[in-house]
């Protein structure tokens, strides 16, 4: 998990600890859950729910480009770029970018947790399909890019 330079040091170290503990125990300890709640606030619980529901999919193309698709709790699909901390959800635009209330939205946190725990689905697509996924946010809700 290469997050250097994109996350505050405390968050990065906590995610490294999540990875280590999950590899050893196949679960997260109560202390880690409390630390996640402390560092990420209410987004932590919501992100863990997304992880439990297996709502995160890593989409990769032959060129090596990738993005994450996260099905939100409302069923809406959001696209995340973890390398630059971007999510297409309204909460990211409002809470992270405008108000600077949060480090990241629950969707990006779910992506980082899935990376640390190794539990995301994977989908291989063509470069054209990947481009269509990125452009999908401009289409009707529920429309799948082809």
From TrEMBL:
UniProt keyword Transmembrane, yes or no: yes
Domain SWIM-type: 68-116
GO molecular function: zinc ion binding
Keywords: Membrane, Metal-binding, Transmembrane, Transmembrane helix, Zinc, Zinc-finger
NAD is among the record's keywords: no
Bilayer-spanning residue ranges: 76-97
Pfam families: SWIM
GO process terms (BP): double-strand break repair via homologous recombination
GO cellular component, one term: Shu complex
Name this polypeptide is given: SWIM-type domain-containing protein
């Amino acid at each position: 998990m290469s997050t250097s330079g994109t996350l505050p040091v405390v968050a990065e170290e906590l995610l490294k600890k999540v990875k280590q503990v999950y590899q050893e125990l196949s679960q997260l300890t109560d202390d880690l859950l409390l630390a996640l709640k402390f560092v990420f606030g209410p987004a932590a619980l919501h992100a863990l729910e997304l992880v439990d529901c297996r709502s995160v999919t890593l989409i990769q193309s032959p060129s090596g480009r990738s993005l994450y698709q996260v099905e939100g709790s409302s069923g809406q699909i959001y696209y995340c770029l973890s390398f630059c901390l971007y999510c297409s959800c309204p909460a990211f635009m409002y809470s992270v970018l405008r108000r600077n209330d949060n480090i990241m939205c629950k969707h990006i946190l779910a992506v980082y947790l899935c990376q640390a725990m190794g539990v995301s689905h994977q989908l291989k697509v063509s470069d054209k399909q990947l481009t269509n996924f990125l452009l999908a946010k401009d289409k009707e809700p529920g429309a799948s890019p082809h």
